[in-house]
Design goal:
- The structure is a single chain.
- This protein is of the alpha+beta class.
- It has helices at residues 2-21, 30-44, 132-146, 156-161; strands spanning 51-66, 69-84, 101-110, 117-126.
- Helix content is 34%, strand content 32%.
Length: 163
Amino acid sequence: MKTTAITWCIISALLVVTSQSEIKEKDFTDIQRKAFRLVMESLHNKEHVRNSFRVSDILTATDIDYSAGIFVNLEFALKQTSCHKSHWTKTDCEILKNGRTFNCFACFKFTYGSHDIMSQLIDCVTAHQVDAKRSSSRSQSCKKVELKGGPGKPGSYAFVTSQ
């Protein structure tokens, strides 16, 4: 009896953790939406891409305010659809059963106010190309984007020099 109760507790805890960890596009902040759109435009502007792709899973979606700008990091999986790449914004495109799967990883550093891009990294590759070496390289390159300096928030220089 105790074993069954413990098993159900563990299953319940896992379901709670799983449901809380899911990230949805609708939950993106405005700056994350902008970064996501830039990645999707970049992918669909490539010559070798013929069909549109739709998000199947969002793995990472973070944004951090720094004195030098706003840093955004996204990673998501995309599935190939039946629509032409020029119609990538359509929501009624069906996912192809044997279509390609892409993994997109992106880091952006935006300036405050205008949200102009100070630095960026966009890496969309087929899912089977993502291995430990590529993940490590992505992380290192993303760190460079994150540490990119800029004009900072208004008054941040005055605050730093007053100390």
